[in-house]
């Protein structure tokens, strides 16, 4: 399926948020996916992942997650300075800011003639957490979270009662939770804590732990695992095929 790409600059309560839109070029109406990047924003691997989803019949929106803290169009490098800046941005933005970002994208989607009305979310690393956060929105029917950081911690600032796990009971759609057992950012104790909470809430979720490192889906760098990436996408397309079609 041939796709087209563009960007839109959306107004949010915390400033203009550039959002990259990848969708099928063929006329029609398509489900949409809010796709959240790592701390580096829309890098090459993130853009390729978004375009892959779009090529399977989805309109994919990739927001600049730290738009309040960087010039429009910022892409951080996969190096130590980029990592340091991204982690600083993560620690500077309150989790509630992502809620208003989500509303801006959802409201914009509602005005698009090519949007079919079915909405999902997906993300890698902090983006996995932000996809989980997006699942709080009632429109989101299916969410794929890859090695979601900081669900088990307090690294991302939040007001009392606003931590993503404290609000998890509001999630109404299906969750796909995928982890790497060799991921030092989310240890076994942290994963167990998240699992226990989701199970106690009775949420609709599936849980997969692979023998992979953090960022095994990223097709650059020494941690990339092509076999696990293929399995991950198979699970994603199964989820979205059932919940968004």
Concise summary:
By secondary structure, the protein is of the alpha/beta class. The protein contains 6 helices and 8 strands.
State the separation between the terminal residues, measured CA to CA: 17 Å
Helix content: 25-40%
Q: What is the number of strand segments?
A: 8
- In percent, how much strand structure appears in the residues? 25-35%
* Order of the strands making up the biggest sheet: 1-2-4-3-5-6-7-8
Class from helix and strand fractions: alpha/beta
Q: Main sheet, how many strands, which sense, barrel? A: 8 strands, mixed
What general form does the structure show?
A: globular
The number of helical runs is: 6
Rounded radius of gyration (Å): 16 Å
Residue runs with pLDDT of under 50 for 5 or more positions = none
Characterization of this structure:
The protein is an alpha/beta fold and 245 residues long. 33% of the residues lie in helices and 25% in strands. The chain is built from 6 helices and 8 strands, in the order βββαβααβαββαβα. The protein has helices at 44-54, 80-92, 96-110, 126-134, 188-201, 226-243; strands at residues 3-12, 15-24, 30-36, 59-63, 115-124, 140-146, 174-180, 205-210. An 8-stranded mixed β-sheet has the order 1-2-4-3-5-6-7-8, sandwiched between helices. β5, α4 (126-134) and β6 (140-146) form a beta-alpha-beta unit. The mean pLDDT is 97.
């Amino acid at each position: 399926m041939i796709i087209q790409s563009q960007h839109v600059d959306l107004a949010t309560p915390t400033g203009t948020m550039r959002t990259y839109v990848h969708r099928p070029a063929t006329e029609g109406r398509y489900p949409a996916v809010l796709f959240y990047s790592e701390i580096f924003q829309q890098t090459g691997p993130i853009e390729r992942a978004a375009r892959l989803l779009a090529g399977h019949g989805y309109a994919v929106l990739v927001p600049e997650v730290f738009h309040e803290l960087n010039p429009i169009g910022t892409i951080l490098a996969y190096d130590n300075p980029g990592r340091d800046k991204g982690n600083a941005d993560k620690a500077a933005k309150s989790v509630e800011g992502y809620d208003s970002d989500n509303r801006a994208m959802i409201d914009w989607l509602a005005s698009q003639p090519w949007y079919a009305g079915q909405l999902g979310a997906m993300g890698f690393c902090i983006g996995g957490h932000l996809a989980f956060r997006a699942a709080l929105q009632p429109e989101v029917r299916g969410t794929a979270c890859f090695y979601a950081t900081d669900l088990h911690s307090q690294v991302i600032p939040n007001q009392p009662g606003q931590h993503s796990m404290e609000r998890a009971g509001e999630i109404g759609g299906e969750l796909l939770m995928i982890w790497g057992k060799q991921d030092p950012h989310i240890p076994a104790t942290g994963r167990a804590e998240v699992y226990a909470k989701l199970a106690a809430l009775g949420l609709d979720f599936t849980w997969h732990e692979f023998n992979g490192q953090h960022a095994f889906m990223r097709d650059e760098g020494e941690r990339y695992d092509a076999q696990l990436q293929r399995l991950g996408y198979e699970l994603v397309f199964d989820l979205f095929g059932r919940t968004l079609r």
